[in-house]
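Dear colleague,

Following up on Tuesday's group meeting, I ran the structure prediction for the four-component complex that the binding team flagged. I've pasted the input sequences exactly as they went in, so you can double-check that nothing got truncated or mislabelled along the way. The C-alpha cells for the whole assembly follow below. Feel free to forward this to whoever is handling the docking comparison.

Inputs:
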Amino acid sequence: MTPNKENFIKAIYELGGDHSVISNKKLVNNLSISAASVTEMNARLLKEKLISHVPYRGVKLTSSGIRIAHQLKRKHRIWEVFLFEKLGYDWNEVHADADLLEHVSSDLLIERLNDFLDEPKFDPHGGVIPNKDGSLPETSTFPLTDVGTGKPFKIKEVDDDKEFLNYLLEKDIQLGDRYTLTDVEPFDGPITLETPEGRQITIGHKAAFKILVDYVTE
Amino acid sequence: MTPNKENFIKAIYELGGDHSVISNKKLVNNLSISAASVTEMNARLLKEKLISHVPYRGVKLTSSGIRIAHQLKRKHRIWEVFLFEKLGYDWNEVHADADLLEHVSSDLLIERLNDFLDEPKFDPHGGVIPNKDGSLPETSTFPLTDVGTGKPFKIKEVDDDKEFLNYLLEKDIQLGDRYTLTDVEPFDGPITLETPEGRQITIGHKAAFKILVDYVTE
DNA sequence: ATATATTTTTAGGATATCCTAAAAACGTTC
DNA sequence: GAACGTTTTTAGGATATCCTAAAAATATAT
C-alpha cells in the first residue's frame, strides 16, 4: 500500500464509493489527475480486490476497501485532533498536514496518539473517528437540507474543506451552534436559519448540504 | 525533494560526508541498495548541487547538502522528543517512527511541535537538535574512547541505533550517568568504567566510540 | 435513430526508483 | 609492473506513477 493508492481509496470513499459506483470523471476532478491515470489505478486496485469495477461505469469499494478507507479516516482525524488541540492549528488549517501524516503512521503510533488525546470521538469538524478495527460508530446526523421547519437543531459536523470552513467562519456558523429553520426556498434555493437570539443567516442549498445536524433532544 | 533523496543525504551525513569523501561501498552497506542505485542517486544529487563527486572515490555534501541534512536531523529529533516524552515510547523505539514522520513534516508543523515541547535542546539519546536555519548549536562532547583516566565524566549522547540502545540497557548505562575511567586496554581493547558507587562496567572499544561524554565541571 | 458530445480505455512515453550482469577503473601484491 | 581482486560505472530492465493523443464505448439531442 502506497500513499498514492491510499489517497485514491480515500477519494473513492469520499465521493460515496462505499455504497454507489463512482465514475472516472469524478475521480479525475477530485484527484486532479488524467483520465488515463484513473483507469490505470483502477486496474491496480481491482487486482488487489479493494474495488469492484463495471467497465465504462465506474468503481465501488469492496468491504476490504471500505475497511481501509475507515482506517485512513481514523488516522487522519486523530492527527487533526492533535494538530488542533495540542499544536494550536486553526479549524481550517489541520487538513493539509493530517493528509501527509496519515500515510506514515504505524498502528502503534496512532493508538498511542489516541491515548494521549484521551480517545477523542470526533475530529475538529465534528467528523466521527472510526474504530480501530475499521468499523464506524453510530451517528444520527443528517444534512441541514433535510431539517424540518420549526424544530431546533444543532450543527454536528461540517465538510473538511478549507474554503468551505472559511466561508462558515465568515457566516459565523460554528460547530455546536443551535438554530431553527425559518425558510427554505424551493428548487434547491437558499435556506434561512435563525439563532436563539433572533439573528438570521441565509445560505445556499449546496452549502447547507455540507453541514450535518441533529435535532436537539430536550 | 523526495523521502528517498532525503534518506540518501542523511546517510551521507551520518557517514561523515560533511567533512570527508564517502565511498559508494559505504552507502551500499548503509542503505542496503545496489551499487548501481548509489551511482544513479549520486548523479541526481550532483545535478542538484547537494553533493560533490570525485569519480571512483565517492561523494561529499556541499554546504546546501549539509544544511538539508541538519534540517532533517532537526525534524527527526524533535519528533523523537515528542514520541518519547508525550507518547511514552521507549528510548530505543523512537527511531523508526521518527524516520517516517520527518519526511512529511512541514516547517510550520515542526515549529509548532517545537513550541509544544518547550523548545527542547536534545533528543532522547542526547543528540543536539539543530537550529531552524540548519546551523548546529555548539557542543563540547567527545567519544568515550578519548577520556583520560581518573577525571570524572558524564554520558551526554549515545548512538541512535536500536540494537546498540538495547545493549546499553543490558549494561545499565544511561544518559547522564557519571563515571570515571579505571582501565583502557591497548590496541583498541576494552574500556572499564566505574560508577561513583564502585560498580565496574567493561565495554568494547567500538561500543565506547558510540558513546559521547563530557567531563564533569565542578 | 443518427449525429454529436462526453467519457473511458488503450497506446505509447516520461521520470524516479530499484535491480542484475558486464565492463571499466582502481588498488594491491608479488 | 602484470595479475588479481575490489569497487564503480554502464547497460539494459522492471515497476509505480504520471502524462498526451487516439480509439472505442456510451450518452444526448434533435
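Chain A has a mean pLDDT of 94.

Cheers,
M.
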